[in-house]
Amino acid sequence: MTRQLKLKIKRQDPTPDAQPRWQTYDVEVADDAVVLDALLKIREDIDGSLTFRCSCRAAICGSCSMRINGQSTLACNTQVAKKINANGEITIEPMGNLPVVKDLVVDMTPFWTKVKAVEPWMQVGPDQPEREYLVSNEDMLHQAEMMNCIMCGACVSECTSLAVDANFLGPAALAKAYRFVSDPRDANTQERLEHLSEYGGVWDCTHCFMCVEVCPKGEAPMERIMKTRELAMEAGIRDNNGYRHIESLAKSVSEKGWLDEAMLAIESFGVTNIPAQMQLLPFAMRSFFKGKAPLPGPFHHRRPGAANVKRIFQKLEVHH
User: Fold this and answer.
1) How confident is the model at residue 49 (pLDDT cuts 50, 70, 90)?
2) Are 274 and 286 members of one domain?
3) Phi and psi dihedrals of 285, rounded to 5?
4) How far apart are CA 250 and CA 240, in angstroms?
5) Do 114 and 184 have their domain in common?
6) Is the pLDDT reported for residue 313 higher than 90?
7) Greater pLDDT, 128 or 76
8) Which of 170, 201, 234 is the last residue of a domain?
9) Given its phi and psi angles, is residue 40 left (phi above 0), alpha (psi -120 to 50 degrees) or beta?
10) Distance CA 36, CA 56 (A)
11) Which structural domain, as residue segments, surrounds residue 116?
């Protein structure tokens, strides 16, 4: 059995001044076809100029990652029957947060540059075993959980932090970094954690969960980022905006029963960091004149029941 469908594809020529355009193709495919089957049929039988990447066709190489109906995934692993809308149409675009080379092909150079920046290789110390490192079965099982990433870039494509700050290392690179900071054989853990705690590192993740949602292999990059944060705090790396942010938030809620937004901003940058505080001043003034500036510090009153909230925090601290 076959079905007719329309593929609405976002195309772009590789010239500097080229603007993206939409082109729709009518194609007939088998009922059990995947999106890559439809794209290959278009390129082979209808329009040989259509450009996209593919290789293994088995969800292993990750090269056919693209946005299908607005969400990044693998074309070889996405059934047409599950994506076709009521009008018999599927929308296909290149991945986001990466420069487009042509049509559905993006330049992966920024992706690999960020991965290389976390030094994704084992770094051994001077004390090396005569034959091999002995690692517990539990540790190796934990490492095996992180081996499924195929570096397809789907998580990077949908990362909301990268969309507003190109300096962010991104979920793929940070997940790869965790694979080494959590490995007991690596001798450079402290230095790695210090680097990952800097601007653009683990503290710049906004917890949007998109990387978890779109990963075609069921990995959870955001969870790796959160665990790296925990390791950094345990290692005493706390002189950064991220740690100060969560410390201020916890203190505010535990003492007053709700969030002191004004002090959160001030304490996150550091109370003694005058240049950073001055950068906040224009925003604070605009908020004040629009009646949206929260009352800071002693003017931020306690909520009824704040004592009960504080007891919850104290119990958690004891159990931790």
Assistant:
1) very high
2) yes
3) -65, -40
4) 16
5) yes
6) no
7) 76
8) 234
9) alpha
10) 11
11) 109-234
DSSP readout, 223-259? HHHHHHHHHHHHTT---SHHHHHHHHHHHHHHHHSS-
Q: Are residues 123 and 78 in the same domain?
A: no
Separation of alpha carbons 90 and 79, rounded Å: 11
Backbone angles phi, psi at 174, to 5 degrees: -70, -35
Q: Which pLDDT tens digit goes with each residue over 253-309? A: 888 888 888 888 888 888 888 887 888 888 778 887 887 777 777 777 788 888 888
The CATH number of residue 195's host domain is 1.10.1060.10
Residues 32 and 64 in one domain: yes
List phi, psi (to 5°) of 220: -135, 80
pLDDT at residue 75, rounded to an integer = 98
Contact 153, 108 (CB under 8 A): yes
Contact 196, 174 (CB under 8 A): yes
Quickly state the pLDDT bin for 199 (edges 50, 70, 90): very high
Q: Which residues are CB-contacts of 86 (< 8 A; sequence separation ≥ 6)?
A: none
- Say yes or no: 163 and 253 in one domain: no
What does the alpha-carbon distance between residue 138 and residue 124 come to, in Å, rounded to a whole number? 21
Owner of token pair 């950068």: 279
Are 45 and 89 within one domain? yes
Mean pLDDT, residues 215-223: 94
Paired residues of 67 in beta bridges: 72, 93
Section 188-216 average pLDDT: 96
- One domain for residues 132 and 226: yes
pLDDT of residue 156: 98
Residue finishing a domain among 234, 266, 295: 234
- CA-nearest of 213, 10, 210, 3 to 92 is 10
Considering the domain architecture, whether residues 224 and 312 belong to the same structural domain is answered as no
Report which secondary-structure segment, H or E, holds 314.
helix 306-319
Domain count across the chain = 3
Q: What's the pTM value of the predicted model, to 2 decimals?
A: 0.87
